[in-house]
Amino acid sequence: MNKEGFSLFEFFMVTIVLALVIAIGQPLIMLAIKTFRVNAYKNSAYNVLEAVRYYVADNNFSAIPDDGIDINELDLKLKNNNFESGIVKKIGDNKLKIINLKQKNYCAFGTLENMKATDKGCGALDTTKPEKVNVFLKNTTSDSLTILVGAIDKESDIIYYEYSIDNKKYTKKTKLNEYTFDNLKSGSHKIKVRVTNEAGLKLESNVVTFKTNISDIECNEINDKELYQSEKNIKCTYPSGYKYEYSLDNNTWDELKLKNNSYIFKLSDNKTIYTRVIDNDKVIKVNSLNIYNIDSTLNGAYPELLDNMIPVIYDETRSIWIKANPKKLYFDYKNKIWANAVFVKKHADLDDSNSHSRDYYLSNDAIGKEINLNDVVAFYVWIPRYEYKSFNSTSKGINPVTIDINFIDKNKKNKLNMNSVFNDKNGFWVSKYQSSTSLLSNCYSDLNSCDNKDIDIYSLPDRNSISNISISTAYLQASNMNKNNNIYGLDKNTKPHVLTNLEWGAISYLTNSIYGINDNVLSSTTGNITGVFDMSGKKSEMVMANYNKDSGKDSEHNSGFKDYGNIDWPDIIDYYDGITFKNRLLGDALGETINWYNSTSNFVNGENPFFIRGGIMNNVSSIYNYTNHNGTKSELYTYRTAIYSK
Questions:
Q1: pTM value?
Q2: CA pair distance 63, 450, nearest whole angstrom
Q3: Which of 378 and 220 is assigned the larger pLDDT?
Q4: β-strand 637-638 against 427-431: which pairing, if any?
Q5: Is 199 left (phi over 0), alpha (psi -120 to 50) or beta?
Q6: Separation CA 42–CA 527 (nearest Å)
Q7: Do 132-211 and 218-291 show the same overall fold?
Q8: Contacts of 616 (CB under 8 A, 6+ apart)
Q9: Which residues of 353-364 are buried (b: 16+ CB within 10 A; e: fewer)?
Q10: Any idea which architecture 132-211 has in CATH?
Q11: How distant, in Å, are the alpha carbons of 98, 322, 447 from that of 441?
Q12: Domain spans of the chain?
C-alpha cells in the first residue's frame, strides 16, 4: 500500500483550483440568490392579484374604483400586512393590474400575464423618460456660470446630472443639480443638461444661452436684530432692465413688480423662495432664498439659553440627540416639539473614544453631531411665558378641558390670566427628569447619605430619583448648582432652585393645551421625547410652596427651615396665606383643576404646610395629584429643579 501523502506541489495546485472555483462561483451564486428573491417577490405580487380577484368576485367587480384602490385598504380585508404601499387597478372588463407594490427596496408592477419586479426600488420599473428638464442660471461672475437644474419625472427620481457647455462633451455624472462652469470667456454661452432617472432613462434639455457679467440678486432681512421672529420682511434687489419672476416650487412662476429695482417679501412661515431674471424670454439668472427662524407660535417667548447650555434636538431616524444650531429654530411648540437643552461635563472621558469636552459641544463644529449621553449631566426643557383664558373660577370640580393658551413676550402686558411665575421673564428651564445623582455616589447604597447638601444633582433618563431628603436639603442641593467649579458650568447670574408650586402649575396647564399631550400624563407632557418626564407615575415630588412660613409639625417632624430648623427660608418659594382652596394662587393647578383625571386634592394645613405634587396617589397617576407634607425626609418623595437668569 502506498502511504505517501500529497506533495507540496500537488497541495499547492489543489489550493489554486479551489480558489478559482470560489472566485468564479461566488458571483454566480450571489446572482442566483438575487434572481431567486426577485422572482419570489414577483410570485408574491401574483398572489396579491389572485387574492384581490377572488375578493372582487365575491364582492362585485365594480368594488374597485376606476382610479384604483390602495393595497393598505385591502390589507385589512385580505389580512396581508407584508407590503408598504401599492395600488390595484382594473383594466378592461376583467383584468387587474398592480402598480408599484412596494416592500423595502422590492417593487412589482404589472398584470398576471405580464409582471415585472426588481430589488432596486419602484423607480427602476419606470418605462418613461423624465418629462422635462429646466435649466436656470443661479449665479454668474465675469468668468463663471453657476447652473441650477429642475427636472420633472412623476414616476421615479432623477439620480444623475450631466452638463455640457458650448457643444463640448458632457461632464461626468453627478448627483448634484447644481454645477459651476469656471474660467469662461466673457459673453454668451450655450448650456445643455442631460438627466437620468432611476430606470436609467435619459432626457436632454433644450440648449439655453446665458451671459456672464450679470450682477447678483441681493436679498437681506430688513430687521435682523431678533434671532427668531413671528414674521420677516426680506428685501431683494435685482439688476435693472429685465423682467423678474418668483416661485415657491421652482416650477410655477409669477411676475414680480419692482419698486426702485427692489421687492419686499413679507413672510409668516419658513420656506424657500426662488426668484429669477428674464431677458428677451430667456432666463438669465435664478436665486434661491431659504427663509428660516420664523415662529408664529411663541410670539417672542423664545428659549433663553444660559451660559454653557447646549441646545439639542432629537433625531428620530437614528434615535439620538444631536446638537442644534442655536441660530436656527430647534423647537416647534405648535407641533408639540418643546425646546430641549443639556449641560455636559467639562472634560472628555479619556476612556471613551466618543466622549467630548464642553468646549467642543459649545463650538460650531458640534452642530448636527451626536451628543454622547455619557457626557451629559442634565437635560432641561423650556416652558415659555403664556397667558390663558379662565376656565374654572369656582374651585369646584369640572371635567378636564383644553386650556386656551396664548404665548406672550415679557415686554407685552397680558390681557388674560397669567401665572405670576411669568411676571418678569419669558419663561424658565425645568429639569426634564426627576433629580438623581452620580452612580458613584453612596446615596444609592445608603439612603441616609442622600440628605447631604453637597451632592451633585443630575437630570437623566433611567436613573433612580434622589429620595429620603428633607425639602430644606433639596433647597440647598439646588442652590449649590451654581457654586464655584460646579459640574454644569453655571455662573452666579443664574437662579437654580427647587421647582415651585406655581411652576408646576405652569407646566401642567401647558400640558393640557393644544401644545401638550392634552390628556392625563403617563410619561411625557407632550406624548413625545421632547416633553418633561415623570411628573406622574414615578415618585411624587416636593415643590417649594408653604403655608404661612410654617416649618413643620413639631421639632421632630419638620422641614429644617427656621424656626424648627436653622436654615433660612428660600427667596424662590410660593407662600399660601390660608388652608382652603379659596387661598389658591392663579395658575397653580390646585383649585382650577381639582380632581382632574380622578386626582387626589389635599390642601396644606398647619401640621403639613408643604405641597407634594404628581406621582401616584390613591392608585391614580396624575400630574394633578397633590397632598400635604411636613417637609421632613421621606423615601416616597423626590424633587426636580428649575433655572432662570437673575
A1: 0.65
A2: 69
A3: 378
A4: unpaired
A5: alpha
A6: 41
A7: yes
A8: 536, 537, 540, 625
A9: eebbebeebbee
A10: Sandwich (2.60)
A11: 63, 28, 10
A12: 20-125, 132-211, 218-291, 380-643
Ranked by mean pLDDT, which of 24-38, 120-134, 247-261, 398-412 comes out on top? 398-412
Q: How many helices (H) and strands (E) does the chain have?
A: 5, 35
* SS (HEC) of 105-154: CEEEEECCCCEEEECCCHHHHCCCCCCEEEEEEEEECCCCEEEEEEEECC
Judge whether 640 and 459 are in contact, CB under 8 Å: yes
What's at 329, amino acid-wise? L
Q: What is the pLDDT of residues 575-619, one digit of tens each?
A: 999 999 889 999 999 999 999 999 999 999 999 999 999 999 999
Q: Choose among 199, 87, 115: nearest CA to 153.
A: 199
Find where cell 416649618 sits. Answer: 551
Return the H-helix or E-strand segment holding 478.
helix 471-479
Average pLDDT in the 138-157 region? Answer: 86
Residue pair 264/222 in contact (Cβ under 8 Å)? The answer is yes
Most confidently modeled range among 12-26, 115-129, 167-181, 255-269: 167-181
Q: Phi then psi for 605, rounded to 5 degrees? A: -150, -175
For residue 549, how many other CB atoms are within 10 A of its CB?
A: 12
CA angle 131, 133, 134 (to 5 degrees): 135
Sheet holding 218-221, edge to edge: 218-221, 232-237, 262-267
Q: Does domain 218-291 have CATH number 2.60.40?
A: yes
Q: Based on the number of CB atoms within 10 Å of its own CB, is 181 exposed (0-12), middle (13-18) or buried (19 or more)?
A: buried
Distance CA 130, CA 158 (A): 8
On whether the CB atoms of residues 242 and 230 are closer than 8 A, the answer is no
Beta-ladder partners of 379: 342
In the numeric block, the cell 453631531 is attached to 369
Burial profile 460-488: b = 16 or more Cβ within 10 angstroms, e = fewer: beebebbbbbbbbbbbbbbbbbbeeebbb
Question: In this predicted model, which residue has the larger pLDDT, 237 or 367?
Answer: 367
Tell me the C-alpha distance between 363 and 174, whole Å: 32
Report helix, strand or coil for 58.
helix
* pLDDT tens string 295-311: 889 999 999 999 999 99
